[in-house]
Every structure is written in C-alpha cells, then in structure tokens.
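Q: Got a minute? One more chain.
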Amino acid sequence: MNSKTLYILPNSLTTLNLFAGFLSVIYSIQGNFIIAAYAIIAAAFFDLLDGRVARLTKSSSAFGAEYDSLCDLVSFGMAPSLLLYQISLHQLGRIGWLSCFFLVACGAIRLARFNVKKETDEHDRHFQGLPIPLAAGIIASAILAYHKVSTDFLLNFDIVMPSLALCFVLGIVMISNIKYRNFKDLDLKKRRPARYLAFFILLIIVIGYSPELMFFFFFLLYTILGIIFGAMNTGKKILNHKSKKQIT
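A: Always. Here it is, folded:
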C-alpha cells in the first residue's frame, strides 16, 4: 500500500467505532448512562464489522491494525471505565478512579499484546486473554440489564462493590493467559443442514425477546467458560507435571 493512500471502507468503520466510543464518554459525563452503554455496544458492532470487511475485501493493512487498536482503547478502555466511574465508583474517591485506571491500563496491555501476537501467529484459533471489546460489552450490557430489571427494590441496590469487582476481574482476565475461542475458522459459506438455520432463527428470537439481558448473559457466559476451561487446563498441567516427577 502506498504511504499516501488508505483503504477507506474498513477505516471508515473503525472511525465509526471511535465516534461511538467518544459519544459514550460525552453521555457518561452528562449522566445519560443508558445511551452511553448503548454507544459502547454500537462501537463493538463497528469493531466487529471493520475486521470482517477488511478480510472480505482483502484491504487489511498495518495502518488499519494500529488505527483500530487506538480507537479500541478509547471505545473499550476509556469509555466503559468512565461509565463505571460516573455511575458508581466516584463514591469511592481515589480508590474509584484508580480502579478505573487499572481497567484502562489492562486494556492497553491487552491491545498491545494482541498486536504483537498477531504478527507471529495469524492462524491461531484462540485469543490470549479476554478481548477488550468483550470486557467493555460486559460492562455496558450489565448496566443495560440492571436498568431493564430495575424495580423499587433493585433501585436501592448498591452497585459500587459489583462495579469495583468488574474493574479488577475484567482487567486481570484481559491480561491473563486464558484462551478464548476467536471463531475465525468458522466458515459460513459451507453448506449446512437446515437445523443450523433453525438454531440461528431461535437465537434471534431469544435475543429479540430481551436484548439487554441476553447480551449480558452471552458475554458473561463466554467469559466464565473461558475461566473454567483455563482453570481445568492449568489443573491438568499441574497433575501431568506431578506424575512425570513421580515417574522419574
């Protein structure tokens, strides 16, 4: 690619990702937390779309990869951290904003490690650590789910400690060595039995019934399953190491 030219379509989608993240920051500052959360979900959609478009149109570039990471740090690092701070963690003072900074810093480390790893192994079917858009998606969907089920009782529920836990748990999982399936090897162009289409229709119905709750459920399930399988793999390695020691 010429240094003076850019692939417009994928980079335009990446810019929309950045714009949505920026809007989330603005709405968080204004106290409109629901729209701020929806803006993060929109940013995640554009982030998913720009990569797919770049691969389909064979317009991937080093510039696009770096630009994407910079935009992701705003949309999935700064925006959800500020949202958590504004909605609850400001009550903790210095501990609150330091916890949010921890989440942002872990997100930056996760993005940098992804960029380096992508250069060494482009065909890996797993992410190392929870992807930052999913971490942001958990925060945004948790706020939307809470708003969805809010009653007079739940409105009095203190969300400070859950917000604090989200900062540290998601930050640690992002920079961990836990492997998460990336589904890049999923080929939707192949012919499949009709039941696959029926399952997809059922999934749309389930999500359409309550998008706020279902997105939070799927994001959380993906994260928890990764932690469980990661713990199981670690346990197997420890047992194998012990058995080898006993044999020798």
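A: The chain has a mean pLDDT of 83.
Q: Perfect, thanks.
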